[in-house]
Design goal:
Blueprint lengths: L1 H22 L18 H29 L2 H25 L3 H16 L21 H8 L6 E4 L3 E4 H12 L2 H5 L4 H19 L1 H9 L4 H16 L19
Antiparallel strand pairs: 1-2
Length: 253
């Protein structure tokens, strides 16, 4: 834990300092809610969307079906719990960078309980204490700092995003405390667990995702709408082209 905490503070502190300088924190208030979708790269984005659909059809969707059919549910739950637990150190640091001390505290205690009593995060005893994950990321941190959303983009293999969230994802990956703190091959186990968790999600929500990608009249426009709407909802921008009543969660049960 001491090594992990040191890596957390050192690496995120360095990246946070660089980000603060590069972004020029002249305004610390969150930007106003954007309206509609700003998509100046639509032609390129549509090409990427086609590539992602092909990748999903050829690899991701079949792999998720195999994963869902052969892996017992208790194992899938354990893998998902383990992957979620590995996200908590990053959530903790982003919570600090956002000034969210309450969220930081919840994630800290959740991580400590699940890592010890939960056998490395395979089980989720923290939930019985009411310690649910305060999920966040560096894209949300930049939003809190006042960085605007920027143009919509679709990334190969990763899907819908915005310029701000692309930067946030890059920072989260580069400064992942768990990957930096764990030696090989333990760090690879973390990556494998996250891949397994994503395949489990793809299988679990297969009907909804398939309806968006393969049954929509314009799957690109539908995916863009859902991503921007849901992301703005996560950031509390309920006035961004619609209120909370307009929120659509493609992963809803």
């Amino acid at each position: 834990m001491r090594v992990l905490n040191s890596a957390l503070l050192q690496n995120y502190g360095r990246l946070a300092g660089v980000s603060l300088l590069s972004l020029g924190l002249g305004a610390c208030a969150a930007p106003p809610p954007p309206a509609g979708s700003y998509d100046p790269y639509e032609p390129t984005n549509r090409v990427m969307h086609g590539i992602n659909r092909g990748l999903d059809r050829a690899l991701v969707r079949p792999s998720s079906k195999v994963y869902g059919s052969i892996v017992p549910q208790p194992v899938k739950t354990g893998v998902a719990n383990f992957a979620t637990n590995l996200d908590l150190p990053g959530d903790m640091v982003n919570g600090l960078l956002q000034g969210n001390i309450n969220g930081f505290g919840k994630n800290l205690f959740r991580f400590a309980i699940n890592t010890t009593l939960g056998v490395g995060g395979l089980f989720d005893p923290a939930k019985s204490f009411g310690l649910n994950q305060e999920k966040t990321d560096f894209g949300q941190t930049m939003h809190v700092w006042g960085v605007a959303e920027g143009p919509y983009v679709e990334l190969p293999g990763l899907g819908p995003s915005t310029v701000r969230d692309v930067v946030g994802t890059a920072v989260d990956i580069a400064a992942n405390p768990v990957s930096l703190a764990l030696p090989s091959p333990e760090s690879y186990y973390a990556t494998i667990a996250k891949v397994g968790s994503k395949l489990g999600d793809r299988d679990r929500y297969s009907d909804t995702i398939d309806s968006i990608l393969y049954e929509s009249a314009d799957s690109y426009a539908q995916a863009r709408l859902l991503y921007l709407q849901n992301r703005r909802f996560e950031l509390g921008q309920t006035g961004a082209g619609g209120g909370a009543d307009d929120f659509i969660d493609p992963y809803a049960e």
